[in-house]
Amino acid sequence: MQRKDFDKIAERLRNWGRWGAEDQRGTLNHIGPEALQRAANSVQSGKMFALGLNFDKNGPQPPGMRMNPQLYMTAIAQVMNPNFPEVVFSDDVVHMSLQCATQWDALSHAHYDGVLYNGCKACDVLSTAGASKNGVEHLANPGIMARGVLLDIARLKGVDRLEGGTLVTVDDLRAACDKQGVSIQAGDIVMVRTGHIDHFTIDRNMMSFYMNNPGVTTEVAEWLYDHSAAAIAADNLAVETTPMESFGGSEMPLPFHMLCLREMGLPLGEMWNLSPLAADCAADGKYTFLLAAPPLAITGAVGSPVNPVVLK
Amino acid sequence: MQRKDFDKIAERLRNWGRWGAEDQRGTLNHIGPEALQRAANSVQSGKMFALGLNFDKNGPQPPGMRMNPQLYMTAIAQVMNPNFPEVVFSDDVVHMSLQCATQWDALSHAHYDGVLYNGCKACDVLSTAGASKNGVEHLANPGIMARGVLLDIARLKGVDRLEGGTLVTVDDLRAACDKQGVSIQAGDIVMVRTGHIDHFTIDRNMMSFYMNNPGVTTEVAEWLYDHSAAAIAADNLAVETTPMESFGGSEMPLPFHMLCLREMGLPLGEMWNLSPLAADCAADGKYTFLLAAPPLAITGAVGSPVNPVVLK
Amino acid sequence: MQRKDFDKIAERLRNWGRWGAEDQRGTLNHIGPEALQRAANSVQSGKMFALGLNFDKNGPQPPGMRMNPQLYMTAIAQVMNPNFPEVVFSDDVVHMSLQCATQWDALSHAHYDGVLYNGCKACDVLSTAGASKNGVEHLANPGIMARGVLLDIARLKGVDRLEGGTLVTVDDLRAACDKQGVSIQAGDIVMVRTGHIDHFTIDRNMMSFYMNNPGVTTEVAEWLYDHSAAAIAADNLAVETTPMESFGGSEMPLPFHMLCLREMGLPLGEMWNLSPLAADCAADGKYTFLLAAPPLAITGAVGSPVNPVVLK
Amino acid sequence: MQRKDFDKIAERLRNWGRWGAEDQRGTLNHIGPEALQRAANSVQSGKMFALGLNFDKNGPQPPGMRMNPQLYMTAIAQVMNPNFPEVVFSDDVVHMSLQCATQWDALSHAHYDGVLYNGCKACDVLSTAGASKNGVEHLANPGIMARGVLLDIARLKGVDRLEGGTLVTVDDLRAACDKQGVSIQAGDIVMVRTGHIDHFTIDRNMMSFYMNNPGVTTEVAEWLYDHSAAAIAADNLAVETTPMESFGGSEMPLPFHMLCLREMGLPLGEMWNLSPLAADCAADGKYTFLLAAPPLAITGAVGSPVNPVVLK
């Protein structure tokens, strides 16, 4: 993609100012009371799923990439009161990359031309203290809940996992909507299943997971925009195809990230474990549900780990 | 309280084996499909609230206590591809106590006599690697969602904040239920508001918040047991009264923790910011709602930060 | 001090290019074989002293300042081989500010006008990866050893500790040299004792130590330059007077830092515990000795903790 | 080696009580004024060498082992005073395993039968707070300086590097002493060169370095004892042969560690980069020198990174 073509799309999708000059929640603004009530109404069987990977040193990030979580015990069966040595507590500390496993990219995670979502200048807002604008704490308050719609592209294609490098197109999403009998409405969160996470969750093969990801195309950003989607999440590394070498012919690396995070203000959920949920959806034919995926309000952070939960 | 009296209560409330010898979710087992459907049905206006404090170095833990979160930027507007220096990303790392702010105590957080919930021996399960049983990852999968019931004890007493050291009794909880027109049902999560968090959130006075907390009495554990509550959360430091010096006359420090975590297997939510939610509940008279408070699945951790979200 | 007056001094002391365009060791270049042999020759009684503070959470940095070291045990009496459970090891991790206690400022620690020692542009060399030029690893290899000369200004003035805010002038240093019968030679490391560290080491009063430090004046930088000193260290927070408010009338905050680190390339040793050594020097009248104070070669770091050792 | 044979040696080498019931410095007590003066006298040419590896994420520990250092910048060219925006500082934090690269094992690093050096019971002294006895801070104060004697076994054998798994015997050490014209005296620190570190420093091959190390035999501990050596250091992973599988036929894993750390109280220096020093020693025929290798006084730590410096 040439930069001038990218720029045309970017201009069309740009939501800057749409929700006020000070807005830092972007397309989460699509999630109003009506959308939330619709989310609650989609619950029909009282089944709960968690979509978060475990956070530990055996995480999906290969050595040399982001730091997998390190858990440190600061108290192990430690006595509280010497008069009662049989009564004890344990305490712990974690040290982790905020992008190490199941997570949200905040709107400050990536940008170009020195400007972030809603026109914030990078030089004004980014420092060692984090992002003074568009930090993840704004996604965290009042949180992220919505109706989730799972689009199971792997199942659509009749495979367990899409091949590495496979592009998930708008046509694929439309076909999945048709096959599954769902449509995206304003304020929904779209969840795209490629099956790619199974390289990690089933095979425990970090490198197979990390390298050569299937993912959505740039035009999917336009489709999200046109449907007033609130956010997108997927079970691969970066929602869109990676590694960046895939963009060798493009004048804009990670174009989907840029359109979503910077132009639209649309959060990206990465490395969500969608396979067990998808199996249940395939079994009962219900692909919509209440999704609660609240990031931690880590002040100034450009991302947050999350344990998304689904109630069907 | 004498140890022999404590032991009698402990014996009655002990849920060990109730959900199988391998159970590590305790009273979260009360949250079945029916309870979850009831949670969804309690949504009536599509209003969303987040109850998590911000996670940063200005957290509620005074110096010398648990470590408030430290955010480190590992990339600030860093170029991805030297051919496109205008396209950049930012990345970050957090270092934090898992009990530093709004959080869940896992069942492994405290115990006595060398044995944890469901009869796990401390010497077998606790090490520098964390808790090999009763770690927070078991609460995280499939997550924590339920109907939440807010019991606003401060409002019941006609004050903004309960005085430090005030005991919240079963009578208080009953009175709040009556006044608010709610009852606790199996699988509900009880949320007790003391107003104490306002010392931190409004006054920014860490020490006032930390010292001399109002909190629930030991008998509240029995009341939770009798109602088959799934969990309890509060807006103070430790749900029950602290500091531990309050237990000077007791032969069991932190008796409520012990009854909940060790006997019942009932998770404790601490430092939840309930005041904005409570104001809304007072305004619309609705004190029940869908609560989603999924811990991160940090393998072996004895607690997890959380950003609880409420949908009314 | 007006900026134009500062600039005149800065220009005179600027060592850029003196040891080559690629030099990153600055005045440590003064320490040649002759100076090192002189250091060894100054050993006369075989007495050893360590000048480093303990590194732990009770360090000299008050809460909210730099992070005092956190030690985490990653193994406690952990079995190596299950066949031999009686044979165990322990392991640990530290998390600490590099400027938390006894330490060296690297040449990259402070600068002005966007340029560091030897003309390195800040925008080219400073990033989240640290300092690609003038990092502490260059001071660390081949290390820092030299003849140390202790100038005991507190003793000169007949006090245990200089008053907070006291200026240590060139006249003071000359008077100490005269009284002690020493002279500074090329490649020596000058060690200035104010007694101020005793607020921390004896009184354990972090705030008294942190606030209102006695320290050297700007002209001391000129004196070091004229004597071809290799480095300076002191027993206060920042060698020069702090807090920076002391520089209220100056157009250059921390002028001594700037002259030393940026112009001369002269490392600053801070928070060295000189009092026990000084007592011994007063007793035997010997104020020169071999000093070994090797920083850790932390790649790209702007400082390093150190445990300086002295052999008299 | 059978346990009963090991026990006989252990009993003979045990220094418990030799320097008092409270001693925590072990064989460093051999370093008295005479030994230190001898160290200073060994300086003859004023040449300085640093033996520490760089501390960064490209360290010698392969992924999944100890954590290589992570450097975080907490300030990058940050303004001190808004009135003078051109004057800035930078600051940093490190997170690292204390055994990640060039380091000292403290006496508390390994033990068996529940007892550490000088009869300290593990259950009394080891906890999440570290080692309350035999912590590295006792080695750090008053530091570690001595005459160092390099025994270049690789050169003795006429190779650049000993083969993986090669045992360095007492005969080898004696032969090296003879060839080099040196003898070990009380209070010396013995430095054994295998060349193995070149797998890391030259080839940058972590796994070749980590796996299949040449190293000293158990009897070398006896030889050190008989010569009243103060410490031993080597350029391999663990001074003795590793991995532990090498001890398959032994009833005591890491027997050399146990004899040194637990019985004798003799610190072990690991992963010291001896090759450049050795080349110089070969050139000038001088294998003795002043060695300063002061650990950081990290309270309660079981090891410390170090940048050993040598003055010839």
From TrEMBL, chains A, B, C, D:
Domain of life: Bacteria
Gene Ontology MF, one: arylformamidase activity
GO biological process terms, semicolon-separated: L-tryptophan catabolic process to kynurenine
Database matches in Gene3D superfamilies: Putative cyclase (3.50.30.50)
Pfam families documented for this protein: Cyclase
InterPro entries in the record: KFase/CYL, KFase_sf
Protein name: Cyclase family protein
Organism classification: Bacteria, Pseudomonadati, Pseudomonadota, Alphaproteobacteria, Sphingomonadales
